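ok so i was messing around last nite and threw this chain in just to see what happens. nothing serious, just curious
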Amino acid sequence: MQPKTSNEQTEYDAATVRRWVQAAQAGDQEAYGALVKMYYSRVHGLLLGMVRNAEDADDLAQQVWIKVWRKLHTFKGEADFYTWVYRIATFAGLDFIRKRNRQREVDWPQDYDGPTETMAETTSSVRSRPDEVSVTNEVWQAFETALGTLSPEHRAVLVLREVEGLAYDEIAKALRCRRGTVMSRLFYARQRMQTMMKDWR
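result:
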């Protein structure tokens, strides 16, 4: 049985994922490949939202799936498999950001695809203008700059919630922190983004 694509990925029942995981833990590389295909784009999207660079996200995604394979025997099924994978990916992203911040000032790429869903209202407000292209680029740049002012922990929570759509409890499991901590970080991150983007509202 091969994994579905696009939005159909979310329709797999827990029993199917468990069978793939158990088979992969027994050394079945085809089953592991099915898991990778099922979750790769979501993990890559998470990392891209965190590190804001396509090449870095590509490298990190590969590293994450190698690490998942090596650590697969430690997965006990106490959390959903994707939550366990997201935890590994999130900490990989956080470690990367911390190392990068120590080495140099963050320089966001100019070719980023654009803002997350939280920017929908802002971008829609400039679409009817004659200079919409330059204005929209400025909005995106402002958004990227604002996102860069967040700490890695606050950025991770914002991406997991706003981009990946994870529930508070799922984020708490992924980051190994309390639900209240998730809510607090998300509140701060949203407030910070609103403050930084006030000129574009």
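not much to say yet. The CA atoms of residues 47 and 93 lie 6 Å apart.
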